[in-house]
Amino acid sequence: MLTELRIKNFAIIEALTLPLGAGLNVLSGETGAGKSIIVGALGLLLGERASADVIRTGADRATVEGVFEAGDRPEVLAQLDARGIDVDDAQVVLKREVAATGRARAWINGTTVTASVLADVGRLLVNLHGQHEAQTLLDPDAQRRILDAFGGATELADRTRSSYDTAARIRLEIADLTARRADAARRADYLRHVAQEIEEAKLAPGEDGRLADEARRLEHADELRTLAETVGTVLDGTDDGPAVREQLAAVHRALTGLQRIDPALGRLQELYDTAYYALDELARQCDAYAAAVDLDPQRLAEVQQRRDLLFRLAKKYGPALDDVIESGRRSRRELDLVDSAAFDLRALEHREGEARAQLADAAAALTAARVSAADRLARAVDEILPELGLADGHLTVALDPRDAPGPAGAEDVEYRVALNVGHDPRPLARVASGGELSRVMLALTTILARLDRVPTLVFDEVDAGIGGRVGSQVGATLRRVAAHHQVFAISHLPPIAARAHHHIVVSKGARGGVTTADVRVVDGEARVREVARMLGGDPDREVSRAHARELLEDQSRNEKNNEERERRESKGDKGNFEKKATARVESRE
Questions:
Q1: DSSP secondary structure string, 178-233?
Q2: Do 326 and 134 contact (CB within 8 A), yes or no?
Q3: What is the C-alpha separation between 47 and 473, in angstroms, rounded?
């Protein structure tokens, strides 16, 4: 439920806080006072396109903020939790800001979100019905979902979609495997050549690096032996000079003398010992290395030949040796596919047949449920349309068969209406009159009120083009819907305003030389004066106020009588709302 709407620097509104309550909230006021601007601000909050044109003159940004109580809407809380948005005390705060540069930002409970995320959450909280748009009910997917929910076919719809998705996945697997097999067959000779050439080479990972190291050693074998022998000669000595290790004996004697005088220098002996043994090991290993160096021209030729082979393969299938090895494996797999694909395709085709059969069964069951629900829904709406001033109105729920079952079933669902005698039903989205469209929306909403999980319904100018008794009937219908939802309606009609649980008045004034809009909740005598104004009288005259009081009292009595009648009817009602509506139609016929 929307408990508070805060608007700042939006169009003519400087700063406005709109308090809302449960039940029917009616917003009234003079033409041009800013009622539809408030609905426009709410639309912006729900993710509609943002434009810098909405910013109030002299301001650098416009903001709209809505506070919602979502404790009875676990699906909303679950979606926010899935997006990592914290919720305290089941309160959800949506916020939208538009800067003068045209840049828009959005938040949910202080967490920055995209406009699409804001819209996704907003659709779960508010359903906005304007004169020329009825967000949800004009959407073909929503019409289908509503029909399925009304007919208790939601699980069948889910099963149909799941069966379609399964069959579609298998078809993609078949198409992919068939394409890969055909491609492999076309390239079989080439693939066979690649696989054979690489497999015959018997390549090993890292072999190119090892061969490069070995070739370098073989090419410089003589130099390596000479250098290693030089190290040994210097360490061991020659006839021309003393060995380094012999010279170290003088170092050892000097260290011994130092320690005799200063025993604290024992650590120097340790360093000497380490250096001596390290040089001794160095001399030994250099001698061994020099003896092991092999001058082998034949092995060098073999290594060079192998490296040339690896270079040619890398140039053709590389660039790296690992790429060459993978090319060979891939070519072999594609060749194997030519032989194994036939068996795999047969298995996939069998699975596809089973999935298509399951889809056909689910779609047929769904079609049967929709056919029954479509008739019952149309009858129930037709029962309400005369009460809304559409005496000749008729709703048709068309089920247009598809060539083959799809994810949404074997038919397309479309709501069509005929509002005058002799006219063919037309799609709901093409109803010309905004007022008529709003009333058709209201009729559908009344029937579906107990199925619709969206907590807040907003009707902008639902009373367009009507008056008198029909206005009173529209007000009664809104009040009935308000038993299951929070309803927020913009209205010029006194009978609708008189039905409100909460009556809010919008007025226009000037602040700082700039036009602005303000709101106030009215009750008691203030409400009497507003209804008197709406009746066309002078609210300062007692006769006008008396007329307004009489209307409010009449509506209060009617409401009590309606509530008592519904209470009596509910005692024998087993909970099937659409059956009750159908029964009323049949009794009338």
A1: HHHHHHHHHTHHHHHHHHHHHHHHT--TTHHHHHHHHHHHHHTHHHHHHHHHHHHH
A2: no
A3: 33
Return the domain boundaries, the chain: 1-136+455-522
pLDDT band (50, 70, 90) for residue 570? low
C-beta of residue 438 within 8 angstroms of C-beta of residue 461: yes
pLDDT of amino acid 327: 92
CATH assignment, 1-136+455-522: 3.40.50.300
pLDDT of res. 503: 94
Amino acid of residue 121: V
Residue ranges in 52-187 assigned as alpha helix (H): 74-82, 115-125, 140-150, 154-186
**What is the C-alpha to C-alpha distance for residues 67 and 108, in angstroms, rounded to an integer?**
10
Would the pTM of this model clear 0.70, i.e. be above it? no
The encoded tokens of residue 244 equal 């380094």
CA angle, 523 as apex, 517 and 526 as ends, to 5°? 65
**Residue 432, SS3 per DSSP:** coil
pLDDT at site 584: 41
Average pLDDT, stretch 106-121? 91
Cα 265 to the center of its chain, rounded Å: 77
What's the CA gap between 110 and 119, in Å, rounded? 16
- Could you give the angle at the alpha carbon of 159 between the alpha carbons of 158 and 165, nearest 5°? 90
C-alpha 409/C-alpha 394 separation (Å) is: 25
Q: Max CA-CA distance within the chain?
A: 140
Tell whether the model's pLDDT for residue 588 goes beyond 50: no
Nearest to 457 by CA among 466, 448, 465, 445: 445
Q: What is the pLDDT of residues 59-85, one digit of tens each?
A: 999 999 999 998 888 888 888 988 889
Beta strands 91-99 and 514-522 are unpaired
Over residues 150-176, the mean pLDDT reads 93
Helix (H) or strand (E) holding 380: helix 321-384
Q: Are 334 and 184 in contact (CB under 8 A)?
A: yes
pLDDT value for 335: 76
- Output Rg (C-alpha) for the chain, integer angstroms: 43
Q: What is the arrangement of strands in the sheet containing 394-406, beginning at the earlier edge strand? A: 394-406, 409-418, 426-427
* DSSP codes, 527-567: HHHHHHHHTTS-TTSHHHHHHHHHHHHHHHHHHHHHHHHHH
- The residue behind tokens 């008198």 is 468
Among 14-18, 255-259, 293-297, 373-377, the range of highest mean pLDDT: 373-377
Cβ(376)–Cβ(170) under 8 Å? Answer: no
Residue whose entry in the numeric block shows the structure tokens 């490069």: 212
Q: What is the pLDDT of residue 137?
A: 66
* CA nearest to 492, candidates 27, 134, 133, 39: 27
CA 74 to chain CA centroid, nearest Å: 18
SS3 helix, strand, coil % of the chain, rounded to 5? 60, 20, 20
pLDDT of residue 133: 46
Which two structure tokens, joined as six digits, stand for 206? 């890292």
Pairing of strands 104-108, 91-99: antiparallel
The token pair at 273 is: 């010992």
Q: Of 363, 310, 338, which Cα lies nearest the Cα of 148? A: 363
Specify the length of the chain in residues: 589
